Amino acid sequence: MRVGNQIEKPEGKLGVLLPGLGAVSTTVVAGTHLINKGLAHPFGSLTQMQTIRLGKRTEHRQPLIKDFIPLAHMKDLVFGGWDIFTDNAHQAAMKAGVLPQETLEKVRPELEAVKPWKAVFDQRYVKKLSGPNVKQGKNKMELAEAVMRDMEQFQKETGAKRLVMVWCGSTEIYLQKTAVHDTIETFEKGLKENSPEIPSSMIYAYAAVKMGIPYANGAPNLSGDIPAMLELSQKTKTPVAGKDFKTGQTLMKTIIAPGLKARMLGLQGWFSANILGNRDGEVLDDPDSFKTKEVSKMSVLDNILEPNLYPNLYGNYYHKVRIHYYPPRGDAKEGWDNIDIFGWLGLPMQMKVDFLCRDSILAAPIVLDLILFLDLAKRAGMKGIQEWLSFYWKSPMCLPELQPEHDLFIQHMKLKNTLRILMNEELIDHSGLDYYEK
Ligand SMILES: NC(=O)c1ccc[n+]([C@@H]2O[C@H](COP(=O)([O-])OP(=O)(O)OC[C@H]3O[C@@H](n4cnc5c(N)ncnc54)[C@H](O)[C@@H]3O)[C@@H](O)[C@H]2O)c1
Predict the structure, then answer these.
(1) Mean pLDDT for the stretch of residues 318-343
(2) In the sheet that 334-342 helps form, which strands lie side by side, from edge to edge?
(3) Helix crossing, 140-158 with 200-210: angle to 10°?
(4) Is the C-beta atom of 126 inside 6 A of ligand 1?
(5) Atom 40 of ligand 1, residue of closest alpha carbon
(6) Could you tell me the sign of the dihedral formed by the alpha carbons of 36, 37, 43, 48, in that order?
(7) pLDDT tens digit string along 353-379?
(8) Does the structure show a pLDDT above 80 at 297?
(9) Residue 419 pLDDT > 90
(10) C-alpha span between 325 and 76 (Å, rounded)
């Protein structure tokens, strides 16, 4: 890892590769251009809006993160992507219905310029979708090579100096790690032999990591989270991160649950229901895709509450998550939580959360931050799993011998302290003792 002045400078354009040009992707592309034109603010983005405290509180050093570390500038981002539909990013954004037509009109030429390349897609892995813009190949290795050629071509056309890939494609059916995923050799053999255990998202991840391009996985798919890909990421010195953007209800869960635990309030049950009507909701209406999402959403509470350490408080709670496809809502999701808790002497209490959120509005700044932080990580010589980016994920990746960190506040501290380490600044332990115990 390189720190301070050794981190390569973010010179030239940064190419952003987006498999899946749907609601989230087009909201990122539109938002970036609107912000670059001075027509909007980057609300929700740490890289653009948040400050970082340095040194002692008496020093009053609080620069913006983007002024503190050498991040690529938003104006240097250029976008490309793949989709199974031929709609350009403007048409796709109109269909996704996240941003109003008049807003999209202001960046129409920039959006129209993003025309999807043919996708690597197999309906076996996303049962609710089918589309015409799909690559053909003798085997999965050929498809991966075609993705690599797309990226090279894009880099040549745009003059981008560096690339980053963020999977914004649909959630695939639930798959578990098998022997094919074990090593680079078994995986490459699987690609050549068309192994059914290699879904489309893994083919993109392989293409990126093979070329040393940082890869982030916005969906809960296994994708880059297999031993073979991690081995490859070490070999090609590539940062990887995932999985599943932490947006609506899970964001709330990872805010509320650490608070309950910090105060030693017990949990009897947590029932979460969602209604949403976008394409993501339609894909998740298929039980096999929902299973992938469910596993991702369910893991959060156990990891935060640690029932093994606190059996009386958290040893016996009931956790249920439901997602209902309800077209009238479009992207404006509603998430209900009923939380049954207990306190002193076991007396019961209840909390009800009704979060009327906008999925892609919460996801877009996450994608922007991940693009910029992963590019930073690459220039700083960081490789493999980027655990310091756990802040952004529902199912943060970590080494098999570790527990993932889900607590949003610990994740936040982890991220900021990593930035301090990268810039040779003192770590902050927040004890405050140095002001009092002199
Ligand atoms: N919006 C959020 O808050 C949020 C949060 C967490 C995770 N996610 C995940 O992010 C992903 C994108 O969400 P969205 O709301 O934009 O969904 P979306 O359905 O609007 O967009 C996904 C796009 O991916 C395309 N696609 C599917 N498979 C593909 C493939 N193999 N290659 C290329 N394109 C492919 C689809 O045609 C579609 O246009 C989903 O997996 C979703 O579960 C979203």
Answers:
(1) 92
(2) 318-325, 266-276, 334-342, 348-356
(3) 50
(4) yes
(5) 170
(6) positive
(7) 999 999 899 999 999 999 999 999 999
(8) no
(9) yes
(10) 37
- Which ligand 1 atom is nearest residue 122's CA? 31
Per-residue tokens: 435: 């002001």
**What is the distance of C-alpha 112 from the center of its chain?**
25
User: Which CATH architecture does the domain made up of 248-356 adopt?
Assistant: 2-Layer Sandwich (3.30)
Distance CA 7, CA 71 (A): 10
Kindly report, residue by residue over 126-184, the tens digit of the pLDDT.
988 899 999 999 999 999 999 999 999 999 999 999 999 999 999 999 999 999 999 99
Q: Which two tokens stand for residue 370?
A: 């991940």
φ, ψ for residue 404, nearest 5 deg:
-65, 150
Q: Which atom of ligand 1 is nearest to the CA of 245?
A: 6
Q: Is the minimum distance from the CB of 96 to ligand 1 under 6 angstroms?
A: yes
What are the tens digits of pLDDT across the range 33-45? 999 999 999 999 9
pLDDT at 201: 97
> Where does the pLDDT of residue 270 fall: very low under 50, low under 70, confident under 90, or very high at 90 and above?
very high
Cα(359) to centroid(ligand 1), Å: 11
Read off the tokens for 421. 């380490």
Tell me, using a 6 A CB cutoff, whether residue 363 lines ligand 1.
Answer: yes
167 within ligand 1 shell (Cβ under 6 A)? no
| Protein residue whose Cα sits closest to atom 21 of ligand 1 | 22
Q: Which of 134, 140, 168 to mutate to test the pocket of ligand 1 (most atoms within 8 A of CB)?
A: 168
Which sequence spans correspond to the domains of the chain?
Answer: 4-245+361-422, 248-356
Is CATH 3.40.50.720 correct for 4-245+361-422?
yes
Rounded to two decimals, the pTM is: 0.95
> What are the structure tokens assigned to 254, written together?
């990872």
Q: In the structure encoding, which two tokens stand for residue 303, read together?
A: 């990891």
- CB count, 10 Å around CB of 345? 5
**Ligand 1 proximity of 247 Cβ (cutoff 6 Å):** yes
